Amino acid sequence: MxxxxxxxxxxxxxxxxxxxQLREHLFPGDGLEAAAIILCAQSATxxxxxxxxxxxxHASCRVRSPDHxxxxxxAIEAAIDLAEANNLSIVLIHSHPGGMLGFSAxxxxxxxxxxxxxxxxxxxxxILHGSAIMTPNGAICARLYDRQLASTSFSAxxxxxxxxxxxxxxxxxxxxxxxxxxxxxMASDLKHLTACVVGVSGTGSIVVEQLARLGIGxxxxxxxxxxxxxxxxRIVNATLEDARNGTAKVARxxxxxxxxxxxxxxxxxxxxxxxREAIELAGLADVLFCCVDSYEGRQLCDRIAAAFxxxxxxxxxxxxxxxxxxxxxxxxxxxxxxxxxxxxxTLADRGVYTPETLRREYLRQAAPDEVTEQxxxxxxxxxxxxxxxxxxxxxxxxxxxxxEFIARAYPFRQEPNQRRARTVFSLAAGxxxxxxxxxxxxxxxxxLARGLIEPLLGMPRFxxxxxxx
Length: 469
What we know:
This protein has 469 residues and is an alpha/beta fold. It has helices spanning 16-26, 73-84, 105-120, 184-190, 202-214, 240-245, 249-258, 276-282, 295-307, 355-366, 368-377, 391-409, 464-468, and strands at 11-15, 35-44, 47-55, 64-65, 68-69, 89-95, 129-134, 140-145, 151-153, 156-160, 164-167, 194-198, 218-222, 265-269, 287-290, 312-318, 321-324, 327-330, 334-340, 422-426, 431-435. The protein has two domains: 3-167, Cytidine Deaminase, domain 2, CATH 3.40.140; 184-468, NAD(P)-binding Rossmann-like Domain (Rossmann fold, 3-Layer(aba) Sandwich). It has 13 helices and 21 strands. The longest helix has 19 residues, at 391-409. The radius of gyration is 24 Å and the shape is elongated. Mean pLDDT is 93; it is low at 375-383.
């Protein structure tokens, strides 16, 4: 299954930081149009991610008026040079201080003057370039041109910050209003989104079930595993027949969802997320749900979300135990939901995985004899029950995970979403802890907005030559 086989509408994604940078530069307060140049990578053939912003100096524009701006050749040439190194697309964006979210006849004429120069400098026929508009309220509309200067509008522009902002042109020079949470209109709005769920097992199966019934338009399901008898007590929709036949988890859910949704597209992939095919397929998504139980899986989802500018929702459960005079007893019953916005603190920044946990996990897979010795020495916790009765806990955590998504996409909380970068609940203590984005130490992320630039995710192991080998 190749991600390039899907003919989907064009979408543009940018980080909260890039959006703020654009808004500050394009509206200097003088009521005149201003300009910037956006360099875009791609997470899929149809999905563009803003890699870099190049502000155009106001004084270098020969014409700046309330309804017209000229593009300085030096700025265009500098952008071409920077884009050429990684085959990036160039999008010319300018402001409409009057508030019209759409392209004027003057904009059309300007594009037809500038676009040919961009294409002449690009050797790859697959590279497209475009233009965009920003209005004072921060809304963006954009379009792409091919080499014949035929244009295609981006169906949506996504900006994932503390809230998930989406701008879809209404066709009347404005933006479609965001529906109210939990309404029928919300379900209709969700049909325009593609969600990727990595790990379709305990929590993942429940996340998939909720997303499908809420109205998501396209679901990408990635999991390498098959249904076994030990899974039947915690994977919804799994049957005895599935266990007998070793049905792939993604296949089971693709079939189950279609029994109650005839207006959804499900793209199942039976593969590990640690594969080029899976990473590229995940690049089609607007939002990413990480429901895996491995450190490597979380590391890869972390990098995918950063590289492809996808909001990431990571869910986990745990049941710590303690020793008593009578033996082992429950110490706590916990769940965790992390929301990671592109450009914010990552799962790595938050200590969800570390080089040491990744190393120990690798040893457990590659050198089980060595791991056995380490378990005896107390370095790695023992293997948990293979068939734990945890569906109730999984339901609670998976519900919190999807509710976090709803609260970001269709805000309804009385307090700012920024306070909930992480939510941890303890059922034993009856407590819930909220951790803010500002509580984490964020370090520069070299993978941010790199899209499909090689090596994929900055990891040589996923280079095309090594995958083929």
